[in-house]
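Sequence in, structure out. Go.
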Amino acid sequence: MRTFCSIILFIFSNCLVFSQSGDEFLSLLKKKLPSDTKIEARESGAHFNKEYTLFITQPIDHNNPGMGTFQQRVFLSHHNRKSPTLFVTEGYAARPRNYELSEILRSNQIIVEYRYNGESVPDKLDYTYLTNDQAMEDLHHIRTIFKKVYKKKWISTGISKGGTTCLIYKSKYPKDVDAAVSYVGPLPKAREDVRMDEMILEKLNESECGKQLIALQKFALQHDDEIIPKIDSLAKADKITFNRVGTAKAMEYAILELTFSFFQMGYECNEVPNDLNVESVFAYLKKIVGFDFYCDQVISYFEPAFYQFMTENGYYGFINEPYADYIDDLTQFDNSIFAPQGIPLEFNKEYMTKVRVFLHHFGDEVIYIHGANDPWAACRFVPPAERDAVYIEKEGGNHSTRIKGLSGEEQQEIYDALKRWLKVKIYPLALKS
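Output:
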């Protein structure tokens, strides 16, 4: 689930308020949606005829509307009211983009930014109300108001933390959608789920590549006095700061993170430096992990997500035992440093258990897609045979596994399920040669 600084600096197209004159669909939106909904038009692309950015009023606490409200950002791409609607459950900040399922279904598309992320932030940031249950109420509210506009089939989907959100939403409001497609969406069993460590250690121990990575990590830790000044120079050049973590700890975090990032994103073994020197090791760590992930600016951006990882969703810790003799600065080997500081971070171990139990007994019309080499796949949920569900784990796949990268047979299994569940026409993706 790592997303690096260069990725999160989204460049949005300029939004212009669309005049109601000559736009019948906009008139319909203004009529059907709550009167305080803000609607801005964007340029349309792909198969969409109209695209908008909306800001929808949500309660901070759905159980107590008197607590106040915030504006939740939604990206709407309209194709046809007779088409199905893809409901994208993001896990972080959102940006307008076209999802492959929209192409497969020739659907409308609604992307919902996760509360407390991006521009969907209350004036007062009280983390008490950053829970999955509150976020599911956000989604249900948006689904409820849009059912007046789109009355055909609805399909929810999400990627990574958004894939987890998709599965939670299915468990909370199973009748809201006719099918759900979760990409690389884990359901951890603990705040630091050791199954991911076990998977990585097995891969490290079974290959020459793993030995190279371990050697590189030890080399970096032994040459910290030469690498830390390079991080300081990087911070000065990029105008970022490391006040929360400090460059010494940022370096050690990045080194310990290396193996997770390597397998998560499917980097090539032949690119691991054989000639270990400070320059080559620094450049490799910067490429694979990114020291900037530990800067104050990026930590601030992801702080809401890490609050949830530490309290409900679960995450992973850092494998540190092989490097115990070389670590100078770190004293804790989890990701709590990236969560809000000075507030309780008690992990609710029952939350994801309830989601898994629901999916086991009632999780029909769900598609699960994973990459076999992705450490998050160690926390996958595999539906039992009696469920009308599809589970696909791409051999050699990573956290970027999508339908377009699956085999023809795997794609067809997905198309057949969607066609059976939704009774709609399918537009297959072009197979890779």
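Check: Residues 194-338 form one domain. The chain has two domains: 5-189+350-422, 194-338.
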